[in-house]
């Protein structure tokens, strides 16, 4: 998958903070961000879950101060997956996925 110009421009916008704001309006949705943190000659996996306006990373420590960026490191998000909350083992909660970093900035795409 090739990085898009849109994802490169998102570095100027606090993408995660913007998605958290939308998430706070959609309490029955979970957005999973999948990407990586570039390290010298490798890519370190990054996974962030956004639910009810808050982010949590399953792979890295995050900043809980809302005045700061969630991830202080340089990162690239490659894929976004939307789920219906609450998650359960027996039901299919997956709604949609998209690799365009701008797609889920439109609240209509969370429905």
Q: What does this protein look like?
A:
Residues 1-10 have low confidence and may be disordered. The chain has helices at residues 5-9, 15-25, and strands at 29-39, 42-51, 54-57, 76-84, 94-98. 14% of the residues lie in helices and 35% in strands. The protein contains 2 helices and 5 strands; from the N terminus they run H-H-E-E-E-E-E. It is α+β, with helices and mostly antiparallel strands and 111 residues long. The longest helix has 11 residues, at 15-25.
Short description:
By secondary structure, the protein is of the alpha+beta class. It is built from 2 helices and 5 strands. The radius of gyration is 14 Å and the shape is globular.
Give the uncertain stretches in residue-range form: 1-10
The secondary-structure element order is HHEEEEE
- Helix fraction by DSSP (H/I, runs of at least 4): 10-25%
Q: Percent of residues in beta strands?
A: 35-45%
Individual helix count: 2
